[in-house]
Amino acid sequence: MAVKFKKPEINIREKLSELDKSSGVAGEALLRAETPQEQFNLIGAGRRNLLINGGFEVSQRGGYTSATAYNDGTYHIDRWEALRDGVTATIQHLVPVSGESSYGVKLVATSSANGTIRLRQRLEIPNQYKWGARTFTLSARVKSNSSNARLMMYGGSSQGYVYVTGNDTHSGSGNIETLTATFTTTASVSAEFAAFVGIDNIRSTSDPAITSGHYFEVYDFQMEEGKVATPFEHRSYGEELALCQRYFTVMPNGIFGIASTSSTFVYSYQLPVQMRATPSVSLTSTNQRQGDTVAQGISVTSASVSNNTYTTSTVAVFIITGTFSAAATPYRMYLYEATGSFPAQVHLSAEL
Amino acid sequence: MYKIQKDTAINQSGILCDIHNHSIPLDPANSDYQRVLDDIIEQSASCFTGDIPTDLQTAADAKQFAQQVEAYKEAKARIAQYQLSAGDAESTKTIVTGKDSLLEDITETITIPAIPALDATIEVITHEIDKDPVTSTVANPLIVKDNEERTAAQLVIDNTPQPVKDEVDGV
């Protein structure tokens, strides 16, 4: 028995013409990708930015909206360590004004010499292979009047400053330029794995000549896996703040403590997120104050703080002593009260 | 200056840094604690008010020992590289390429060709406007750098305490 069946007609010319269809640069890149991971990176899927506070939005330590002189190795904007060598310099938190959308940071040299001014973010190394044998790309929008403003990467003590490819150096034009730097790590990555932006020579081999007034501004700093820089990943403020608090947090007013003696207060503060390590605790001033829940509060001058055995990465327990304005009542609850001429805040730091 | 903060009656436990007015926990993961150890290694007792507590000194000694082990290993590896001014003689190396039916190693000996020594000097031609080029002979900068690195590595080896060498060399 003969069976008859019909196939849908195919216009072979039409099908062939589809082969010439333009897919655009991005489409071509997607087609050329060798692995699903590379395609994943190209379309910007997932959480990409490995840097914390790359948008420079979080600044728990203070405002710094005007230029502030800084010392080498100090923190101002969360997670970013300000470095300087050979020259003096200021740091300023750039807050968006009308027509702009990004926060940024500006470092300005205030003296002339051979030296460097840089920002550094050290990355946590949960295990030495997490970052090992991988290709990453740094990207940032940078404005500078120095042709030595660049992005750099320190690949750990075994690799040192890594060789990068891409448009990693600013022209010094004074305009905003998008810089990128792609690099590959060694099989294992040791301590001090860190991203840099600043005025320095390539791979920091020597200090360039810096003139007073040389500056750089940085916005939207990102580090992502892969060899392509994708658009900056904006995270919510709350999310970014929580990420920063793993390394640094400020205890708010109103936390309960107790007078353990007439001249000693003990506070216990449940940390907002688990910190990286047991934090160091410091007072921002030696003038400190307790609010009393029953009578007048007690001010302390020459205040000093010390850690308690029970401080861990999840709870900070600390002791405050000093010269008391009045004897505290043992076993009475007091409220932490940074105010007026007794402004001491409690800073808790577990930075790398 | 650092000062130990310890009062068991009130569970006080930390190290006061009077430069930054902060109290550092005795937690090796805390980077301030690591800086205390570094300062003890560099400055000994002069960075501390009073005696350095035994547990801190022990931790600093252990850190210094680990650093010296790493430095000694790196220096030995650097010295083991051939000297650019001397080159390297031809050598052979036996490698295992698989197993035979009796599960014995199948080996192959490969020859590593000799590497000739670099020229001790090179010629540098200097051009100046309106003048003839000047040719001068200078020491080969690659050899100079190699020798400097080897000297630095040898210095590290010479200054490494014997217990560290014994640890690395398996004595």
Description:
Helix content of chain A is 9%, strand content 37%. Chain A is built from four helices and 22 strands. In chain A, the strands form five sheets. Chain A has a six-stranded antiparallel β-sheet with strand order 1-4-5-13-8-10, with no helix packed on it. In chain B, the strands form three sheets. In chain B, strands 1-2-3 form a three-stranded antiparallel β-sheet, with helices on one face. In chain B, a hairpin with a 4-residue loop joins strand 2 and strand 3 (22-24). In chain B, helix 2 (54-80) runs antiparallel to helix 3 and helix 2 (54-80) packs across helix 4 (162-169). The radius of gyration of chain B is 27 Å and the shape is flat. Strand 17 of chain A pairs antiparallel with strand 3 of chain B, so a sheet runs across the interface.
Topology:
The complex is a heterodimer of chains A (352) and B (171).
Chain A (H helix, E strand, L loop, with lengths): L11 H7 L5 H9 L3 H7 L25 E2 L4 E2 L5 E5 L3 E6 L9 E6 L3 E2 L1 E7 L12 E10 L4 E7 L20 E9 L8 E7 L9 E2 L4 E11 L11 H9 L2 E4 L4 E6 L2 E7 L9 E4 L4 E5 L5 E10 L7 E10 L8 E4 L9 E4 L3
Antiparallel strand pairs in A: 1-4, 2-3, 3-7, 4-5, 5-13, 6-12, 7-11, 8-10, 8-13, 9-11, 14-22, 15-16, 15-21, 16-20, 17-22, 18-19, 18-21, 19-20
Chain B lengths: L1 E6 L4 E6 L4 E3 L6 H13 L10 H27 L10 E9 L5 E8 L8 E6 L7 E6 L1 H19 L2 H8 L2
Antiparallel strand pairs in B: 1-2, 2-3, 4-5, 6-7
Helix pairs in contact in B: 1-2, 2-3, 2-4
Rg of chain A is 27 Å
Separate helix tally of chain B = 4
Described by strand count, sense and barrel closure, the largest sheet of chain B is: 3 strands, antiparallel
Question: How many distinct helices of chain A?
Answer: 4
Largest interface: A-B, 29 and 18 residues
How many strand units of chain B? 7
Overall geometry of chain B = flat
Class from secondary-structure proportions of chain B: alpha+beta
Overall structural class of chain A, as computed from helix and strand content, comes to: mainly beta
Strand content of chain B: 25-35%
Distance between the termini of chain A: 82 Å
The SSE string of chain A, one letter per element, is HHHEEEEEEEEEEEEEHEEEEEEEEE
Helix content of chain A: under 10%
Quaternary organization: heterodimer
Mean pLDDT of chain B: 91
Global mean pLDDT of chain A: 91
Described by the principal axes of the CA atoms, the overall outline of chain A is globular
Cα Rg of chain B? 27 Å
Share in β-strands of chain A:
35-45%
The total beta strand count of chain A reads 22
